[in-house]
Amino acid sequence: MIRAQQARRVLADCRLVHRMLEDETDPDQFRIMWVGAVSLLRAVGHVLDKVDAVEPTLRASSSNAFKHWKDASKGHVIFTEFIEKSRNLVLKEYEFQVDQRDEIPLVVVDGADASNFNLSENLFRPLLDGYGAGEDGRDVYAAAIDWWEEQLTLIEAAAI
Question: Which residue in 56, 70, 122, 158 has its CB near the most CB atoms, within 10 A?
């Protein structure tokens, strides 16, 4: 079986930085790691295209897959609205889809009563818009890692 070795190396680094983000409590450290994390996430596809796809059958299957990823109607919204969008926002505008506040306000409703409090120490970093809006960015990042794993496996299987 033909493998996308270099793209899988980048994906392994995505898994590593995800674990680091899960443990990070300092907002400034989190922000810097997030920049690297979203860059790595998009780099999986670039490395697949520029390095691994020198193998002709892998190139054909990855080119076909990339066309599908760019078409949001094909069910790959995580690629266009999170993987690409997050990377582009950070690297081209230094803007973030993930909430950057030191404390995240939260309202808890228990029956008739509502309680307001703030979450700190990076317990919750919601995405502000786009794919996964309102979800913790680390959870969406983990879903993107799973998406890449599935896509690489399909591309490798088709490259026979």
Answer: 122
CA distances from 11 to 48, 58, 76, 117, 147 (A): 11, 17, 18, 36, 11
Q: What pTM did the predictor assign?
A: 0.89
Q: 145 and 18 in contact (C-beta within 8 Å)?
A: yes
Q: For residue 156, what pLDDT is reported?
A: 96
Q: Spell out, as residue ranges, where the chain has pLDDT lower than 70.
A: 72-73, 101-122
Distance CA 152, CA 5 (A): 10
Is residue 15 a part of any domain in this protein?
A: yes
Domain that holds residue 143: 5-98+127-158
Question: What is the count of structural domains for the chain?
Answer: 1
Is 145 domain-assigned?
Answer: yes
Instruction: Tell me the C-alpha distance between 144 and 5, whole Å.
Output: 18
Q: Which residues contact 10 (CB under 8 A, 6 or more apart)?
A: 40, 43, 44, 47
Give the integer Cα–Cα distance in Å for 130 and 85.
9
The predicted structure's pLDDT at residue 123? 73
Strands 113-119 and 104-110: antiparallel
